[in-house]
Design goal:
heterodimer, A: 393 residues, 13 helices, 13 strands, globular, B: alpha+beta, Sufe protein. Chain: A, 3 domains, 3-stranded mixed β-sheet
Chain lengths: 393, 278
Amino acid sequence: MRTVYLDNNATTMVSREVLDEMLPFFHDRYGNPSSMHSFGGQVARELSQARARVASLLGVDPEEIIFTSCGTESDNTAIMSTLLVNPGKTHIVTSRVEHPAIKVLCEHLAQKGYRVTMVGVDSDGRLDMDEYEASLTPDTAIASIMWANNETGVVFPVEEAARLARERGIVFHTDAVQAVGKIPIDMKDNAIDMLSLSGHKLHAPKGVGVLYVRKGTKFSPFLIGGHQEKGRRGGTENVPGIIGLGKACELAGANMEKENTYVRNLRDLLESGLLTAIAQSRVNGVQDERLPNTTNISFEFVEGESILLLMDQFGICASSGSACTSGSLQPSHVLRAMGVPYTMAHGSIRFSLSVYNTEEDIDLVIKELPPIIEKLRVLSPYWATQQGACTTV
Amino acid sequence: MWEYTDKVREHFLNPRNAGEVENPDGVAEVGSIACGDALKLSFKLDENKRIADAKFKTFGCASAIASASALTEILKGKTIEEAMKITNQDIADYLGGLPQEKMHCSVLGQEALEKAIENYRGISHKRPEEEIVCACFGVTDGEIERAIRQNHLTSVEEVTYYTKAGGGCENCHDKIQAILDRVLAAKRSEKEPEGRPRLSNIQKIRMIEETIEREIRPSLQHDGGDIDLIDVIGNRVLVATRGACATCQASQITLKSFVEWKLKEFVSPDLVVEEVAK
């Protein structure tokens, strides 16, 4: 059975070109870039090239790139570093819809005595900018707002948010894990101080991430040890991963237009196809300001895990914001923050595409999913009576 | 991905007895769409007062659908008296087991069955003496106590897995812990002789202090941290972290995987460590 992979916001396939560039660094060119001999020194040169490629995708200086092990490490480092270098400030501003790498850390810090403001979103998933601005205080150490939401794909006005923070002398960080490689990012003319990205979301391998730290930003390392990354992140570099991420960033730059035309078109085909074929379904998240690859669709009166497992029978991979798949008993915190009714939230499915998807993939989903929803609705005690139906559709 | 048994998958993909029995003798609906799963069960008796037909409708995940399907299969041919003896564990066993986090699906089946039998007997299924403990999922103290007794639960987390209680805003965790403490104490006094000797409170606190001093504090101090014992309430050990631990992101992991583990090993397997700000 063919795998139809529509879960690229969870992780992506390592591109063939990326893998090819990585492979020599496992068995043949395994030297330590910190070594004095040329066997290691040549690897250091390759690392520099990878760093330059990443910097180029973001429009930054290579020296502003710190390689980490993942997006979560980058996010944690940004917040913890800023708190450490601003010991007098005890307030953090973030949003209600952040990835757990920020959200759970902030909840943890709240228990430790920090004050945390989580700014809300509207029913379309857009950040409440008035609430955001009002929450910035002289005691605020850092504002951390994601560039694009992983569940809905809604893109936030982070450059505007960063400007408002800078005016008040507040450090601004963005978790751009879902945005990098999907929408153009140019850090030259904005006020964002720190940015996190993760390799495995843009066709590089798992286990490598980046924290961008703008020159002049006070910084305190999270992993303390060797002099790697100019003392900003100890630990021997994940050389193959970094080489892979460099190549992946180069490819992402080259594919940016395709992402925003070809992928967007496939996503729109999928979205309109499903909404037409399946009654009482709706998209979660604003139509325009959304990543080109993501659609989050709710199917009323059915439950997401059941949908996923039935799609699995056809090799279709996606995600759900239902309680049963989140590992907790509540549906996704993002959908709850948007006020999506429970009849809809439990039946939400996120499809996230990549440049490697084809129209055939989309056709298969549009063919196979409607009977799946129908089968589950016949089983559902609510479908016949439409009890608690969502009237806003 | 959940580790479902083949039988769960098979009943999910090909549910038996989906639908509603016409002119049922007993019918009940439990759960709600807000909770994420709901089950409507109906059955009909034959002339010998045995269950001739049972059907279900379910809103929920794969294990909820499989549990309901299994329940209807188990029910067929049973008398009401036999049906009343069916427990959630019977449903889980029929399916070759359920992931622990999904046991509430089998409990939902048992609840639907109880209420459908009450409906058949014309008894109001309201239990006015029971108090709602978990407001998020509408779970009563009686339901929590029954789940603890039937399934030998020992922690709030397990209660959540089986009943969903405490899985939402978590404000009721103290109340659930109090029910656990009461039921477990009652269970211990019901069958005292077996198992390890019971500790008096003073013995327990003394052993906890000794274990912290001998096994725990030296390791934490080595990393620039420290820990203080604040109180012991039942099996809840309340501690405060000091020094590097207080600002360390990994301290929650340390508390659970190191401090609690040591206390379980050296004092009592029932202990749960909680951090308090002091």
